Every structure is written in structure tokens, then in C-alpha cells.
């Protein structure tokens, strides 16, 4: 899943693709590099980011969905049912809601009415996180179990709202009110999340816990642009663990990593 942010303040690529033609060109490059999906977002969810007006988010996202949906399947990264509805009307196939359908009470209904798929992420305190607190939530000593139980409830809520169970994808929400140890525990425990019976999306691309693991030359966390090799490593391990997809900013290295992981798995299974 290639990330296409049309925002001025996203932590990794804010401001790079604000012009419509630049964004479409970047989508084409990602598809050429091996992206199977394009995830289009018009609102940053980094700590301290201010919410944009719904009309502004719609103006950023909807024309781009219309332009890109012929290149590859499109997911729309939004917490607003109105934006999701307009994007689905213009060709999006998936709603990627980082609040898991909690931020807007109409979201799951809209997904169901459009017979779309839904990516439901774990994020228990979005208001505090967005306000800049960015702190860790309390997971009672078992972050994997807490995230698993929360996502199971969100999947149940989506099904109750009419969303097809076959179209539900779960995302553990790496980096959202979680510290580095939480993130590594969730990656190590992907099998426990997959056991719920839904596809699992891993979104670790360029995140802070990778930068902290690999300090730069000045002993500070590695800069965002230098985290792509670590992202590719996460991609390979996630693929081997059975993840449905990985959400990444630089598609090429991760697409290569998936091919290597697949060849490794085929070789181990005795397939030439």
C-alpha cells in the first residue's frame, strides 16, 4: 500500500504532493514501483496536528481519488463519513479509518451502504494524541491482548452496521499512543492478531521507533528520510508473518522485500 498524503504537515512527506499533477505523478510512480493499493489522505494524524475543515479535506482528496482510481485500487484515509462517502462515489474501494470507526458515528454505516471495505485501526485516545500529548495509553501489561480485544470489538461493530466481514482489515496502530516496546511487541505478536480471522495491515513506515533504533551520525534518532531500509526490513518480516499488506511511503524497496520474502517462503516449502 503506497502512501499518498496531500497535506502540508504529515510527519514524513507533508507538503510534497499538494499540487494535483504532482500527486498523480507520484501515484503513477508508486504503481510502477509495485504498489498494489494507493492510500490517499488529506489530514495529518501526527501529534499536535490541527484538524482541517471537512470541506478542505474533501477538496484535497476527492479529485485525486477520481484521477488515481484507474491506476490501482484506492483507499481513502479519513475519519469523516462525509469525505469517505464522496471518495467512494468517485472510485475508492476501501476506507482507512485510523479511529476504527469511532470518530464519526456515521462511518460504518457509510462503508456498509457503499459495500466498501474498511481498515479499522487501534487508537484509543485520538483527542489527547492529536492535542500533542502523544503519550502512551495503559495496556495493562499486555499490549497485544489489549489491542486484539479492541480490534475484535471494532470488527463486531462494523459487522453489526452491515459491513461485509470479508471486507474488514485490522491495523494495530503502531506508534499511536504506543511506545517503542509496545510497537515491537505488536510486531512480534502479529500471529495473535491474525488469529482473529481478519487480514492485518502493518503501518510502520518511517515511524519514530525505527529512527530511535537506528541513530544518525549525531546520535539523535535517524532522520525520516533515512528510515526506509528499516521499513523494508519490517516489510519482509511482516510478509513472512502473514500480514495482508504494509503501508509504506517508499514503495520500491518494500516491494522488493516482499518478493524476497515470498521467494524465501517458496524455497522453504520446496517450491522452485
From TrEMBL:
Q: Which cofactor does it need?
A: Mg(2+)
Q: Which GO terms describe its molecular function?
A: dihydropteroate synthase activity; metal ion binding
Q: What class of enzyme is it?
A: transferase
Q: Which reaction does it catalyse?
A: (7,8-dihydropterin-6-yl)methyl diphosphate + 4-aminobenzoate = 7,8-dihydropteroate + diphosphate
Which intervals hold domain Pterin-binding?
1-259
Q: Which UniProt keywords apply?
A: Folate biosynthesis, Magnesium, Metal-binding, Transferase
What name has this protein been given in UniProt?
A: dihydropteroate synthase
Amino acid at each position: 500500500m503506497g502512501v499518498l498524503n496531500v497535506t502540508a504537515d504529515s510527519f514524513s512527506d507533508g507538503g510534497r504532493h499538494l499540487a494535483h499533477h504532482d500527486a498523480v505523478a507520484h501515484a503513477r510512480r508508486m504503481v510502477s514501483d509495485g504498489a498494489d493499493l494507493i492510500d490517499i489522505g488529506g489530514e495529518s494524524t501526527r501529534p499536535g496536528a490541527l484538524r482541517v475543515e471537512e470541506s478542505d479535506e474533501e477538496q484535497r482528496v476527492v479529485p485525486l481519488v477520481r484521477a488515481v482510481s484507474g491506476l490501482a485500487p484506492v483507499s481513502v484515509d479519513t475519519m469523516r463519513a462525509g469525505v469517505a462517502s464522496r471518495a467512494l462515489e468517485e472510485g475508492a474501494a476501501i476506507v482507512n479509518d485510523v479511529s476504527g470507526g469511532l470518530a464519526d458515528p456515521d462511518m460504518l454505516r457509510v462503508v456498509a451502504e457503499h459495500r466498501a471495505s474498511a481498515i479499522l485501526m487501534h487508537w484509543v485516545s485520538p483527542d489527547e494524541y492529536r492535542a500533542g500529548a502523544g503519550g502512551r495509553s495503559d495496556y495493562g501489561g499486555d499490549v497485544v491482548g489489549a489491542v486484539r480485544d479492541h480490534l475484535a470489538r471494532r470488527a463486531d461493530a462494523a459487522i453489526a452496521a452491515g459491513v461485509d466481514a470479508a471486507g474488514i482489515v485490522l491495523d494495530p496502530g503502531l506508534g499511536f499512543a504506543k511506545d517503542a516496546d509496545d510497537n515491537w511487541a505488536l510486531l512480534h505478536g502479529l500471529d495473535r492478531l491474525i488469529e482473529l480471522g481478519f487480514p492485518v495491515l502493518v503501518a510502520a513506515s518511517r515511524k519514530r521507533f525505527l529512527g530511535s533504533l537506528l541513530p544518525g551520525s549525531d546520535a539523535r534518532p535517524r532522520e525520516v528520510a533515512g528510515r526506509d531500509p528499516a521499513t523494508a526490513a519490517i516489510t519482509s518480516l511482516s510478509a513472512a508473518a502473514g500480514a495482508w499488506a504494509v503501508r509504506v511511503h517508499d514503495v520500491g524497496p518494500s516491494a522488493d522485500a516482499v518478493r524476497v520474502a515470498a521467494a524465501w517462503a517458496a524455497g522453504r516449502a520446496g517450491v522452485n
